[in-house]
Amino acid sequence: MRRTSLIAFATVGIMIVPAATVSAQGVDTPGDAFRSGPASAFASRPADALAYGGTWGSKAGAEFDREWTNYKALQRSRDATAIAQFLVEKAKDGRVWAMREAGAFYAGRFGLANHPDKALYWFHQAAINGDEQAAAVVGTAFARGIVVEQDEQLARFWLQRAIDGDDRKTRLDAAKVLASL
């Protein structure tokens, strides 16, 4: 299996940072590597709240809003362990937004982690649960052989799911990768 420590997921602007080091707390942190914070690709609160099972003003929407506020506070704290624990707990509870955010976190978002296998795992979980942005990331990984063996059939499957989604940028990015196959 081909593995790499530098992964570019161009479809959503994430780059797993190279040259990770281990901090005193045992958390992977990059040195002076490129860091990306694709806030525009992952900050779609209204869509996530609706997908969460509610509408704005509903009990489910209010719960999502509390979780999102807590998540944003953890981001400001830059406590990688707390962020990871929060996201994984919410993802295991079935929160698709948390699965996608966990993938982004482990892919190097905020420059606090660099775990390509975990990143792809969580993106895959989000894609399985209907997240089109995550489907584009998974499709790109299979198309380019990033973390996993290159597999054109799986790449086409996931990229088509991204293209079938509502997000225009995701559709365009996935279509570019699909056209390159």
TrEMBL record:
Keyword Transmembrane helix: no
Statement: the UniProt record of this protein carries the keyword DNA repair: no
Highest taxon listed in the record's lineage: Bacteria
Gene3D superfamilies for the chain: Tetratricopeptide repeat domain
Protein name: Secretory immunoglobulin A-binding protein EsiB
SUPFAM superfamilies assigned to the protein according to its UniProt record, in alphabetical order: HCP-like (SSF81901)
Swiss-Prot/TrEMBL keywords: Signal
Signal peptide bounds: 1-19
Pfam families: Sel1 (PF08238)
InterPro entries, sorted: Sel1-like, TPR-like_helical_dom_sf
